[in-house]
Every structure is written in C-alpha cells, then in structure tokens.
Amino acid sequence: MKHIGIIGGGAAGMLAALFAARGGARVTILERNEKLGKKLYITGKGRCNATNACDKEAFFKNIVRNPRFLYASFARLSNLQLLDLLESLGCPMKVERGDRAFPASDKASDVTGALSRELRRLGVAVRFGARVESISCEDGRVAGAHLEGGESLALDAVIVATGGASYPSTGSTGDGYALARAAGHTVVPCRPALVPIETKESWCAELMGLSLKNVRLSANIAGGKRFYSEMGEMLFTHFGISGPLVLTLSSLLPEEGEVRLSLDLKPALDEGTLDKRLLRDFSAAKNCQLSTVMDGLEPHSLGQMLLRLADISPYMPVHSVTAAQRKQLVKLMKAVPLTVKGTRGMEEAVITRGGVQVKEVNPSTLESRLLPGLYFAGEVLDVDALTGGFNLQIAFSTGALAGASAAKED
Question: Locate the RsdA/BaiN/AoA(So)-like Rossmann fold-like domain: which residues (predicted)?
Fold first, then answer.
C-alpha cells in the first residue's frame, strides 16, 4: 500500500487526502495549524462560497491564468460533482445570486466538518503542528519528508497543497514555494490578487466607508486600450477603493504601465439624458444652493466632492450655474478619474497570483515533470480566478486529481 504525505490540510489538501484514501492509499496530512481548513472558515465572509454552479464554459471564462491547465482537474471533480460530494457527506448546499454555492446553513464549519468526518472514516492520519522543512529523494524520486524538529517520514509520494502567500495568519506563508524551488521548480513571482487598490488621488480617503451600487468601473493602460469595464458595487477607503468591482480589477492589472480608472456614477444614462435630468432638477430648485440639488443626485459627501473636483462652489445658487459648469458636472459624473497607485499587500489579498510554473507540472496527473512522486494542488500553482467560488473549486479539483493520481500504483 502506498503511503502518501499531503503537506497542507486546506481545501486542496483535504480533497487530495479523500481521493487518495478512496484510491486505496495510506494517507497522512501534515498540517502546521491546529485544525483543518483554517482558510475555509473566512471564505465567503464566513459562509464558505465553496464553488460556482455555472456551466463549464462560463466557469473557465472566470479563470484568469492558465485555464487550459485545469481541464483534467475539472474532469476529475467538476463544480456540480463537488456539490454532489458535499451533499453526500451530509452538508446540504444552496445556490444563490451569481450561481454562488454555499452550505445551506451559511456555516463554513459544515463544509470542513463534512470533509473531516469522511477523512476520519477513511482512516486518514492528520498531524497538526507539523511543518515540513524539506522533501527527501532517493534514486531520483520522492522518498519522504523531513519535519521541523528533526523527524523524518518515509513516503511514496508527496502532495504539496500549502496554499499561496495570502492571508498569512491562516498559515499560508509561502512554504510550498520554497519546497518547489528546492525540487528544481520555477516559481512565477507572487503578487496579491483579489485585493483592494490604492489610488494616487488622496480625496478618496474623505469618502471612506461610502459604498456605491450600480456604478461602472473602467480601466485603461495610460494611452492604451480599455481592458476592464464592469457594473457593480464598490466602496471608498482611506487608501483608495475596494469592493467587488475593484477586487476583480486587481486580478487583471498589467504588471507594467500606469493604469487609469474611470468611474461612471450614472451608467444607465448617457450624457445627453443626464444633462436633461440636471436641467430638470435645476429648474425645480432655481433659488436653492447647488449642494442641495446635488444631494438629490448622489450621497451628500460624494456630491460635495464632485463639486470640489469641478471647482464649483456648493453655495452657489442654482440659477447662477452656467451651461458650461453644468456640462462639466455631467462629464464628471459619467467619468470620475482615478489613477492606480498599487494594490494592498498579501495580508489583505483573497488569493495569490503566481506560483509553481504549470509547464513543469503534468496537467493530467499534477505530478512534477522534474521529480517523480511529487505532486502539486491548489493555490501553490500558478492558476487563479475571479471571485464567486471559482478559486475554491480550483483547489478542490486539483486536490482531487493529485490525490487520485498519487494513489495509483506505478
């Protein structure tokens, strides 16, 4: 019976253990934390957005980097198969807006609990507080793992499922990258992804906490083409902007070049229609201060900021506003300019961009092309997706394939 060691007990590690054990292998999870699935507890705001129930074509459109590499993993465990698996293990699931799937209880602990129970039933050994320092080799293939403290384990295969470098408080501190490099693998430089954005404009801080719905955020490389334009929600922070629209944009930012943003506060109206709306509002409140009319168009703090950006006095009586000033306001409301300064750090990122170079991993098995017996699963690989349950599905699918592949007799 093959003895497989799995480094990391998160989403990828648990599925790798489950599929390896079901494949007839003896399995040991080496988890540096005090419990399994620690990061799962904070996904989906504690509800665990386990996957997305959209069709396969839509699913792969949401994978930002190296989607083709994941075809075999998805064939081993698709999103719908994952839902069936969790249901069969006693975790009822529900699908909400945007095809996002959650446990029916809205408790992430139900997902980890269901998987943990199955691992116990299958006889999977779990070592908590176990940090792997290195992977040992004999005759050109994996032979075991050395733990912090000096202990060595003899193993027939090792699956690295350590996660990325985001949310280091959950134990994702990049250990897997060091193990991969030691085995001769290339690691694509890691950057935070699905993360808030810092802007060069400091006025965003004055609107901190203001949330906007049904706005359009667009992005262009300075002097170049538009590469992002979506409608949705966002909010202002003390450093810039955040929210769903912004997190998605952060995963698409180019590595070089200044990125300029445009925020359309009234995407349902073209400039001409919006100008008529302002004319109508101005006519109905000729003797009021301009700031009062702006309160009917935007939240107070944002309305005042728009006037400041347009260099128009909020105390000006509406009947004194010139046509040029009105049109300037219209243009500003349709395209508030912002400039990307950078992103927040790994400690605020939902996932990690970068990781083990996929060209050096067999996509059909997830075994290293450089060191037989070494497998990779989850966020440690250079694959990532947008928000909505896609990244967790990648972890579950790659874990399933790596576990099943490692369990097969050579």
Answer: 4-404
Q: Are 265 and 216 in contact (CB under 8 A)?
A: no
Cα(59)–Cα(237) distance, rounded to whole angstroms? 31
Q: Which residue in the block uniquely carries the two structure tokens 């007839």?
A: 24
Question: pLDDT tens digits for 354-407?
Answer: 999 999 999 999 999 999 999 999 999 999 999 999 999 999 999 999 999 999
Residue 53: enclosing H or E segment and its boundaries? none
Q: Tally the residues of the chain.
A: 410
Residue 401, C-beta contacts closer than 8 angstroms, at least 6 positions apart: 19, 72, 73, 76, 77, 365, 366, 377
pTM of this structure: 0.92
The residues, any chain, with a CB within 8 Å of residue 394's CB and separated by 6 or more, are 63, 70, 73, 378, 379, 383, 384, 385
Q: Token digits for 322?
A: 């010139």
Can you read off the two tokens belonging to residue 120? Answer: 């116990």
Sign (positive or negative) of CA dihedral 69, 166, 82, 384? negative
Positions of E strands within 48-170: 51-52, 63-65, 93-95, 100-103, 125-128, 132-138, 141-147, 152-154, 157-160
Structure-token pair, residue 32? 């540096």
CB atoms inside a 10 Å sphere around CB 65: 17
3 state DSSP class of 140: coil
The residue assigned the tokens 């709306």 is 277
Q: How far is it, in rounded angstroms, from Cα 399 to Cα 378? A: 6
